[in-house]
Each structure stands twice: as C-alpha cells, then as structure tokens.
Amino acid sequence: xxxxxxxxxxxxxxxxxxxxxxxxxxxxxxxxxxxxxxxxxxxxxxxxxxxxxxxxxxxxxxxxxxxxxxxx
Length: 72
Prior knowledge:
Layout: H1 3-52, H2 60-68
Helix pairs in contact: 1-2
C-alpha cells in the first residue's frame, strides 16, 4: 500500500474518532437535559394534582388513577 493511502486512512480514522466523541457529548448532554425536564414536569404535575385534585387522605397516585378513570 502506498504511503499516501496509509496517511489518508489514518486521517479518516482520526476524523471518525473525533466525530464520535462530539456525537457522544451532544447525545449525552441532550439526555441529561431531557431527564431533568421530564423529572421537573413530573414534580410540577404531582404538586398540581396534590393541591387541586386530591381528596382528604388520598394520595397523589390514587388521585391520578381516579382522574384518569382507571378502576385498578
């Protein structure tokens, strides 16, 4: 194999490794943000159900089931 082809392959490997590192960082960052947003939304939803819709002595989970019409 010629020196030119070998050098070209090394450059290509370096570019792919760099791309993968960037991709992993972006995807990892997105997943952290997504997890935080979903968790925050769940906390806000639970608090709203607790304050607005629970009956005396009823848990948030029971109120959610009652409001959804789930008889289980």
